[in-house]
Amino acid sequence: MRGGEAPKYNEKWEAFLPALEGKIPLKIHCEQFDMMTAIEAAKKYGCRLTIEHAWSAKDFLDELAESGADINYGPVGVPTGFGELTGADLLDAALLDQKGVNVSLISDSPILSEEVLLIQAGEVVRNGVSPERALRMITINPAKALGVEDRVGSLEVGKDGDVVLFTAMPTKEVSAQLKYTIIEGKVVYSSAERS
């Protein structure tokens, strides 16, 4: 460093380096009013951005689409407060998808259990998204948001192959039952063994 001592080590600032270097996305947890600030911060520092929650995203559809941010929407069904802690509506996820935004659905586990993802995906279908696109919101889309789509998120040769099999398309049929869970090629759950 020219003209003096190097600044003291600051672990909070150090944690930002991977995002500033583009190695990981800048993940900003925000609802309504902070989304525009998140977009501006990411733009200022040249970071790839994911926004977690994004409640009331319908008020900022064009800005979110233009920003290139990945949106990890939800969860819907948690107790909300007042002001910016309102406005959770899965119609937002459908509208973002229509705008070409990479949208994932989140449970905020352990706030809500992971099972709520299928319920939320079904609600997105009720809001006009195809069952296949809704399924992408809980498989490949989150993998893309994390930058790990080359390893997980879809069934392809060479990818990690953890799979769940249902009796029907779970984003289309509310009666779909989980039959098998397969992790690293081994059946770790079978509904037949549980009955």
Give the key terms.
single chain; 195 residues; alpha/beta; TIM Barrel; 2 domains; four-stranded parallel sheet; 9 helices
Describe this protein's structure.
The protein is an alpha/beta fold and 195 residues long. The longest helix is centred in the first third of the chain and has 11 residues, at 35-45. It has 9 helices and 7 strands. It has a 4-stranded parallel sheet with strand order 1-2-3-4, with helices on both faces. The protein has a 3-stranded antiparallel sheet with strand order 5-6-7. The protein folds into 2 domains: 11-154, TIM Barrel (Alpha-Beta Barrel); 162-195, no CATH class.
Give the total of domains: 2
Radius of gyration: 19 Å
SSE string, helices as H and strands as E: HHEHEHEHEHHHEEEH
The CATH fourth-level homologous superfamily of the largest domain:
Metal-dependent hydrolases
Ends: how far apart?
67 Å
Please summarize the sheet with the most strands: 4 strands, parallel
CATH architecture annotation of the largest domain? Alpha-Beta Barrel
Give the uncertain stretches in residue-range form.
Answer: none
How would you describe the shape?
globular
Helix-residue proportion: 25-40%
Average of the residue pLDDT scores = 90
Kindly identify the CATH topology of the largest domain.
TIM Barrel
β-strand number:
7
**How many H/I helical runs?**
9
The structure class reads alpha/beta
Strand content: 15-25%
Determine and state the CATH class of the largest domain: Alpha Beta
Sheet with the most strands: spatial strand order: 1-2-3-4
